[in-house]
Amino acid sequence: xxxxxxxxxCDDTSAALIxxxxxxxxxxxxxxxxxxxxxxxxxxxxxxxAGRKHAEQIVPVIAAVMQDQKTPDAIAVxxxxxxxxxxxxxxxxxxxxxxxxxxxxxxxxxxxxxxxSVLLPEQGAAPTANIQFPALCLVxxxxxxxxxLMNNHGDYKKIGSTRDDAAGEAFDKIAKMMGLPYPGGPxxxxxxxKGNPQAIAFPRPMRDMDTYDMSFAGxxxxxxxxLQEHGTKHHQSYTLTEPQQYDVAASAQEAIxxxxxxxxxxxxxxxxxxxxVLAGGVSANMQLRIGxxxxxxxxxxxxxxxxxMDNAAMIAVAAYxxxxxxxxxxxxxxxxxxxxxxxxxxPAS
Length: 349
Ligand code: KG4
Ligand code: ZN
Fold this sequence. Notes:
The protein is an alpha/beta fold and 349 residues long. 38% of the residues lie in helices and 21% in strands. The chain binds 5'-O-[(R)-(carboxyoxy)(hydroxy)phosphoryl]adenosine (KG4) and zinc ion.
C-alpha cells in the first residue's frame, strides 16, 4: 500500500510517499525542508519561528512529493511528542487531505517513527526486513534518551531513560560552549575524528549503577569546568586551540558513547532480545554505531544514516504497522506534545 507520511514535530518539515507491503518497501518520493539555518543564529529551536516556517513550507513540501502521484491509500502524521506549534501544522494539513481524499489518517508517535526507520532501504525497493521481537530499542535524539523493550509494533515497555539531558542535548550543549553551531552532534563528531578519546577523563555518571537510567548533565558541567580552566572566554563560549578542540570533542563523545553502550550491553544480558534497534538523530554517530556493533552479540538494526535525523518516511513505515491498531476518527486526532510511546499507542484526544 502507498502511505503519505508527514513530519513537522521539531525543525524539519518533511513529507514522503512510500510503498510498503509485508514483502517489500520503497520510498517513492520524499522532500524535507530543514530549518536548521534559521534556528542556528539562536543556538537552538525557537518554537514560535518553527511553527511559522512549518506553516509556510508544509504545502510546497507535500506538493513536491505528490507531484504526478495518484491518491495514496492512507496518510500518516506525527501527532507527538514535539513542539505544539509544529505538530498542529502537520496534523491540520494531514486532516484536510485525508478528508478531501476520503482515506484513513493514522496518528504516529515520533519515537515509534524513529524506531521504524531501520526498515527503510538506502535506495530503491528492498525486501521488508521486519523487526524481530522482543527487540531492545536505544532511542537517542535531541529530546529523548530511552531504552525500550519492544514486544511488538506499538508495544513498548520503558526500561530506562535519562534523568536529565538527552544524549543529543549533551552533544548540542557541549558544542555550544565550544562556540560551535547548532546542532552540535555532527560538529563534535567531525572534530572528534582528529582527537584522542582518552585525552581527558570526563565522568560517566551512573554508568556502573544497577539501573538503566542515565545522566548526562554532569558530563556537560565537567566539560564546562575544563573549558573554564583551559580555554579563553569569548562571549558565551570558550575558544580553544585546534588540538584542544579535537581532544575535548573526542573525549566528550567517548564518554557519551561509553555510557550508552554499557547500558545497552547490560539490558541485552537481562532481557535477551532478538535484535537491538538504534534510532534517533544521535544514531548517525559513527562511534556509537561502531561501539554497539563491536560490543553486542545480538544483531544490531541501524537505519541508513540519512534517515537518522527527522524524516517523514519513517512515520509512514510506522503507520503501516499501526493502521489496524489505531481507531481514532478524523475529528478526534489532535496534537499530543508529551505523548509517551510506552504509555499509549494513540495520542490522547
Ligand atoms: O531525532 P532528531 O533529528 O531530532 C529530535 O527528535 O530530537 O535528533 C537531533 C539530535 C541533535 O541533538 C543532534 O545534535 C544529534 O541528533 N545528532 C548527532 C549526530 N547527528 C545528529 N549527535 C551525535 N553525532 C552525530 N553524528
Ligand atoms: Zn526525532
